[in-house]
User: Which sequence fits this backbone?
């Protein structure tokens, strides 16, 4: 039996060897072609090609862009959406198109994509504040900064911006279903911020800069009470105050450490310090003890590979974040409007006149009267100068009139005498002589006027030169040792 099976196997092997080249080629071709048939991705038909007669063009563009974004072609999808917005500004898909553009940047990721998504989401909230998608847009604004957060020992700008935006979501939409997720992300952002402050405070304390460490510890205790290492922050704050020789100020921190962190390793030392200072030792409540036990049960030790992955990762480790209430503090905007004092009266149709004042009036709180007095004196001097000019002109005009009137009377007398004493020939000769005399008198009047104006101009020039000479500082006479002063200044 065994010999027969061996003979059969030999015959099969001999028959197979003759057909080996053909079978080998079939297997190779199958390995090359079959995977492409099995994992072939079916191409989606272009939505713009299949257009029904009743479809709206803006709807067609929106669906085409959504299909492109779904398949990772973000640039093409955004370009199509922008075309739809520019072509149909009154479309019913306008809000959805702007939100789709923001979502495409958010899904694309990266620093540039997340930064652009934040701007697009804020733009959407500005134009559509009452839309049902507004809470999601605000949540993703905070998440854009959250995804760009660095580790605690690096720049904390993105962590602070994430905290501000998530707090704004909690203030605007407290009843939205996204509140639970927002609280979790807000606690993680605050954990990163508190950890950065704690590392800085520990460094200062280690170097002996207790005043600087005290400020950092105080900020952690006041702003981040749910910090996972809050017990160490309280203990470090109390230790800094002890080193600064103000032990009485450390009593509240020791008491809070014992009351809020009953499972902390520093509780024994805090109780001993309170007893030494003669202060009562507080006892934790049942709720505080249950919460501390729940937090301790969630803490697990990390393996070597996990620690290596965390150290090589650029994102912060938020696994130690505690669960509990969220500290919102003040509002995100924090803008306080100007308020009127209760005792100040309101004046109707009141006008405000702005004028420059001196530093002395600003310090004293009274209006600057020196400038107003100077202005009034200048105005008075100008008016007096104008009055004096007018009086001089009035005085000069009648005098000129009298001078011109006297020669006229004399001419009349001369003509009358000539008429009585002589004949018509003498009258004819006298009249041109009188005319020439009048002309000469008129020239004299004009010359006198020119002389008066020249005198006034000379007086003004002399006054200006006198003022300039009075204002000019006299030159100092050089002494005997002026050369030595230049070489060796005294």
Assistant:
């Amino acid at each position: 039996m065994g010999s027969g099976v061996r003979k059969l196997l030999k015959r099969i092997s001999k028959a197979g060897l003759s057909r080996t080249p053909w079978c080998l080629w079939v297997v190779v071709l199958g390995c090359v072609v079959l995977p492409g048939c099995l994992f072939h991705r079916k191409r989606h038909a272009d939505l713009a090609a299949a257009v029904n007669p009743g479809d709206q063009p803006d709807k067609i563009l929106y669906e085409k862009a959504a299909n492109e974004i779904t398949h990772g072609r973000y640039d093409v999808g955004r370009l199509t959406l922008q075309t739809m917005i520019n072509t149909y500004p009154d479309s019913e898909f306008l809000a959805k198109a702007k939100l789709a553009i923001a979502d495409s940047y958010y899904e694309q990721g990266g620093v540039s994509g997340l930064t652009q998504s934040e701007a697009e989401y804020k733009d959407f909230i500005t134009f559509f504040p009452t839309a049902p998608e507004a809470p999601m847009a605000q949540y993703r604004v905070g998440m854009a900064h959250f995804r760009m957060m660095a580790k605690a020992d690096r720049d904390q700008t993105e962590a602070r911006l994430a905290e501000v935006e998530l707090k704004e979501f909690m203030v605007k939409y407290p009843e939205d279903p996204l509140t639970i997720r927002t609280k979790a992300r807000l606690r993680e952002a605050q954990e990163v911020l508190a950890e950065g402050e704690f590392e800085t405070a520990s460094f200062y304390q280690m170097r002996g800069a207790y005043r600087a460490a005290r400020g950092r510890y105080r900020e952690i205790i006041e702003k981040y009470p749910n910090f996972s290492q809050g017990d160490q922050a309280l203990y470090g704050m109390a230790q800094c105050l002890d080193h600064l020789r103000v032990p009485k100020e450390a009593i509240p921190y020791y008491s809070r450490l014992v009351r809020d962190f009953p499972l902390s390793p520093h509780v024994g030392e805090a109780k001993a310090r309170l007893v030494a200072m003669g202060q009562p030792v507080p006892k934790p409540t049942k709720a505080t003890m249950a919460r501390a036990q729940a937090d301790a049960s969630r803490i697990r030790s990390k393996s070597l590979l996990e620690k290596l992955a965390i150290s090589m990762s650029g994102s912060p480790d938020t696994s130690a974040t505690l669960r509990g209430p969220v500290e919102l503090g003040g509002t995100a905007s924090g803008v306080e409007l100007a308020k009127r004092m209760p005792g100040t009266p309101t004046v109707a149709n009141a006008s405000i006149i702005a004028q420059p004042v001196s530093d002395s009036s600003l310090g004293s709180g009274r209006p600057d009267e020196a400038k107003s007095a100077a202005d009034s004196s200048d105005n008075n001097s100008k008016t007096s100068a104008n009055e004096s000019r007018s009086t001089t002109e009035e005085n000069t005009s009648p005098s000129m009139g009298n001078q011109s009137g006297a020669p006229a009377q004399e001419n009349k007398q001369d003509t009358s005498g000539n008429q009585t004493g002589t004949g018509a020939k003498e009258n004819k000769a006298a009249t041109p002589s009188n005319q020439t005399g009048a002309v000469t008198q008129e020239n004299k009047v004009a010359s006198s006027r020119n002389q008066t104006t020249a005198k006034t101009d000379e007086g003004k020039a002399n006054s200006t030169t006198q003022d300039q000479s009075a204002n000019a500082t006299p030159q100092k006479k050089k002494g005997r040792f002026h050369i030595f002063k230049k070489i060796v200044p005294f």
Summary: Residues 196 and 385 are 76 Å apart (CA to CA).
